[in-house]
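This protein record is not my work; I was only asked to verify it. The record follows directly below this note.
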Amino acid sequence: MTWLHILLIVMFIIMGMGCLLLVVMQLPGTWIMLILGLGAQLLDVYVLIPDEHTNAGWWSLGIGLILAISGEIAESFAGVAGTKAGGGTKRGMIGAFIGGIVGAIAGSVLIPILVIGTLIGAVLGTFIGAVLGETSGQKPMAVGDSVKPAMGASLGRIMGTTIKMLCAIVIWAVISAGLILN
């Protein structure tokens, strides 16, 4: 293991931590981490140590890709499932999904506390979006009746973000280990 290989590993670990922060901020940190891991793997295999490597880095990227897709699916469906579990309609689910995205962006701007503003905005946006979805349309619910599906949507959003964050942490650890073992 050369000092360039060690430097590459350390740089990925540090940049991967930054990607974990992006995941919490509702940004595509897992995908950026996978791209960084692919770049590090290619650099490691074809530039730094072209003759001496294992397949650990490639396996770790494959595992990371599967986990990233799983985390995205879990996050996407968690808010929707929460709305449905709370007795919500399709309009409430759509409202929760759109509200979560708009809320994350608005929270980042209106609450300038790194990470916390984004999370608060996403959860509040999910709640408000679900309420707006449930109280509009051809058969609107009363505002009081829309609170239960909106709470379900918000709890689902929290669970989805938690699952995605756990997937991102595992991706970071697996790719780091793959680079070390390469």
